Q: What sequence folds into this?
């Protein structure tokens, strides 16, 4: 989950390609990462593909990877299609993940009017429009902005990491990122995950202050500070799309 600033498009290479698998045509975007050791193939949420080319790689190598991994791509697309998707609108009675557990959206009548609650969590006054998503997400973002930086700093002190700045933002493609200057950005939707999953992401980003890559040494650091990180990764893979990631 290192910063995306390490990516650069190599001018001599075409940056897009269409891959055919049976009757399906997939859009492929090629990127060059000068710090990458190997080719990396990623299936995005929209069904398109990204191929990362290492510094001394080539377009031929990237195309060979695509051809050799067609069966894997087909399976990944099927898993993507079968995964549950987040509802586009939230109404009374909708279930929304909060701290790893489904919570029911409720509208309650009070002296000051109708109020919106996520389980027992007060989110605000009932909006004029029927969709409750905006008011609930705004409340969860504020909650995350209070809680996540404090937890991160706690871990940083515990493990001797120096963090220069912490931000909490709405990100659609990642749970967090870390820059070389020590700035860590966190996705507010971590407030919707179980505590162990949230803590794993915070520790993951902190370990990038030691290794700005996903090398074996990096994962060794992660394993030392978060022994059960594989279970957290599995939870994210199973539920990420439900949270829009």
A:
């Amino acid at each position: 989950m290192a910063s995306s600033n390490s990516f650069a498009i190599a001018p001599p290479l075409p940056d897009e390609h269409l891959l055919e698998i049976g009757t399906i045509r997939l859009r492929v975007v090629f990127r060059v990462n000068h710090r990458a050791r190997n080719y990396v193939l990623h299936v995005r949420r929209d069904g398109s593909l990204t191929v990362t080319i290492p510094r001394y790689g080539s377009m031929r190598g990237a195309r060979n990877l695509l051809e050799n991994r067609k069966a894997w791509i087909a399976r990944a697309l099927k898993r993507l299609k079968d995964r549950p998707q987040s509802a586009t609108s939230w109404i009374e009675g909708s279930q929304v993940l909060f701290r790893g557990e489904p919570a029911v959206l409720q509208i309650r009548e009070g002296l000051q009017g109708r109020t919106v609650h996520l389980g027992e969590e007060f989110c605000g006054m009932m909006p004029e429009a029927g969709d409750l998503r905006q008011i609930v997400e705004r409340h969860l973002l504020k909650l995350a902005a209070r809680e996540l930086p404090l937890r991160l700093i706690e871990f940083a002190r515990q493990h001797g990491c120096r963090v220069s700045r912490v931000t909490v933002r709405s990100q659609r493609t990642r749970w967090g990122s870390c820059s070389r200057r020590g700035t860590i950005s966190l996705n507010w939707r971590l407030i919707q995950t179980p505590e162990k999953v949230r803590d794993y992401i915070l520790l993951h980003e902190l370990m990038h202050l030691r290794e700005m890559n996903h090398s074996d040494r990096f994962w060794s650091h992660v394993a030392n500070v978060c022994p059960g990180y594989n279970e957290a990764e599995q939870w994210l893979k199973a539920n990420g799309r439900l949270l829009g990631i």
